[in-house]
Task: structure prediction
Amino acid sequence: MKTPKSLGFATRAIHAGQEPDPLTGAVTVPIYPTSTYVQQGIGEHKGYEYSRVSNPTRARLEENLAALEGGVAARVFASGMAAINAIVSMLQSGDHVVCGNDLYGGTPRLFNQVMANFGVEFTYVDTSDPAKVEGAIRKSTRMVYVETPTNPLMRLSDLAAISSICRRKRLDLVVDNTFMSPYFQQPLSLGADMVVHSTTKFLNGHSDGLGGVVVCAHQEHAEKLAFLQKAAGAILSPFECWLVLRGVKTLAARMEIHDRSGRIVADYLSKHKKVKAVFYPGLSDHPQHLLAKRQMSGFGSMITFETGSLKNANTMLKKVRVCSLGESLGGVETLISHPATMTHAALGPKGRKAIGITDGLVRISVGIEDVDDILDDLDQALNAI
Ligand SMILES: Cc1ncc(COP(=O)(O)O)c(C=O)c1O
Result:
């Protein structure tokens, strides 16, 4: 039985695609570690032929994630980057894409250093201003690619405004929703055509596997992406699919704690004398706080703050004990990172300067530990500056 769309988010997370196994009644989806499937005769099979094309564990995860984002279908890939690669692989030489200028660093690396070699063109604009998006559109533009909030500067883009431009110009709007998860932001309901996630982050939530997903509003995109899974083969393994199926069951509960603690940590940082600036959409002085309240149902747990210099950032990052210094985000553990030398190193000093990523910036993904322990840890680390 399909899980009805009318059910609440937490219920869908636990039950959509996660119905008990019809063979045994097992309450968790079985992992099907098989490369192929026995056929009864030529062209006679149970819907599965080869696991690059389809796998029952993967099919269950795709059903679940489509239900959470409100799409017609979802396709999962070996990583977030593989999912983004599949999206831009739907384009052709000569096509043009308008993108945010403050994306996760790996995304412009793929666009500029791989896709540009195949004749796809990219223009980077500040998508927090919809007029700039519209101004960059050319005759050859096929897609607008947006991340909101951005990584690491937490700038927002008005999805309803950008999607109405895309509709008018007949372009596809793609939104990277990794930072918010479908629990706090539903871009398809605001008019986006595709949503992409690094499932490595909040959807899996336990920092124990990489993955990516594209959730589609239109069957046509879902079919093209299924073809790309088969043709290019960057699919998610049944084991990793199972990890996401397990992780997503607690997504609603985790996001509530991430959000609650995120607000507390952002408030604390904004009052700390060693912190020069805090970037968090939940703070009332964030320039797009009102848009955040309108477009998202929570503010999440991603916070970036300015320590003033590379030396200050390094001093505090060496001192943290509860927070783990490392790339990535969205895990149950608090992860703290240095964008200039980690996620955004590929942009180079010029590229970082152009969008305001300084050497003193530190990004924190607030986990679900006891928030007082996170605050104490940050306090002793910041006071070492
Ligand atoms: C916003 C965002 N999108 C995409 C990616 C790429 O995902 P993955 O590392 O799973 O390839 C990341 C990775 O950090 C990210 O932060």
